[in-house]
Amino acid sequence: MKWRNITARDLSKIVDKLSLELSKTKGRSPHPVYWYHLDGKKMLRITLPNIHGGSTSVSVGFLRQVQNNLKVNTRQFEELFECPLTSKDFEIIIREKLKIF
Amino acid sequence: MTYSSQVPVTSDPRTKSRGKDITPVQILKLSEEEGLYSSNINELTESLENLVNQTGQLRTEIHGRPIKYNVQIFDIGDENYKLAEPILAIVEEYPNDDTIIASFPEVETFGEGVSESEAIINLKFAILDLYEELLEIDTKDLGNLPKAWLQVLKRVIQKNE
User: Fold this and answer.
1) Residue B36 clears pLDDT 70, i.e. is over it
2) How far apart are CA A55 and CA A86, in angstroms?
3) Cβ of B64 and A41 within 8 Å?
4) In chain A, which residues have their Cβ closer than 8 Å to the Cβ of B116?
5) Which chain A residues are within 8 Å of B108, Cβ to Cβ?
6) What average pLDDT score do residues B29-42 get?
7) CA-based radius of gyration for chain B
């Protein structure tokens, strides 16, 4: 199955790419949470796997949830951490999804 | 009409035109002799092979799909809070990964675990983290989605007196 070898490190590329801000949660949950901002507002909240997972593959179930948090389809999700999808492309997708013009 | 006690008799309408009852094997022999269907056999064989391949692909695909079911959560797992109403969570079991995901889709939150209970506990943690964080943020800094999550969580979670 696809997505077998995606690691926490691969997913962490999204943080820089989309300029995600680390959330100030109390940290009960073991995974870091980030905010995606648009027009100065917190728009999306993304839970990423703990980077200490390092080179271990992230489970398909977890990846599905991250994809869901990001509001992108499977192809766009893959392109996000494989590079072709830029932060500007992502912004356009989110503006369309959330109907922000 | 006569029936043989040993050989099954077909009700195939093709036998009617022959004016007698015959077995499926006899139909096949007669068809071969008469050259009937011979052109179709190759097509049928090909179709059958395609079906076998597609069945195999579907089996692989189904095997990778999660088993989904709902569970009700009656307690949020923190003595400072209680639930005004039970939360309906979705549990997804991914057999290939030995992973279970419990989620509360209305607020886009989830917990992961190797067992159902671990996933649900982590979901409770994630819900409380989200609730407390949203309470601390000025609502004018929140987009429509986080505002809607806060509304849901305010309805569901109550502070214990």
Assistant:
1) no
2) 24
3) no
4) none
5) 45, 68-69
6) 70
7) 31
Tens digits of residue pLDDT in A11-39: 888 888 888 999 887 778 888 899 999 99
Q: Which residues of B, range 46-65, sit inside 8 Å of A by Cβ?
A: 64
Sign of CA dihedral B32, B36, B42, B44: negative
Tokens of B98: 């030995």
Closest Cα in chain A, distance from residue B47 (Å) = 26
Does an H or E element contain B60, and which? Answer: helix B38-64
Residue A71: closest C-alpha in chain B: B108
Average pLDDT score over residue span B106-112: 94
Per-position b or e across B99-118, b if 16+ CB within 10 A of its CB:
bbbbbbeebbbbbbbeeeee
pLDDT for position A75: 86
The chain A residue lying nearest B137, using CA atoms, is A42
Q: How many CB atoms lie within 10 A of CB A45?
A: 23
The residues with which B6 forms a beta bridge, in sequence order, are none
Which residues of chain A neighbour B96 with C-beta distances below 8 Å? Answer: 1, 60
Domain boundaries, chain B: 13-62, 66-159
Task: Report the b/e string of B67-95 with b at 16+ CB within 10 A.
Answer: eeeeeebeebbbeebebeeebebbbbbbe
Nearest CA in chain A to B103: A65
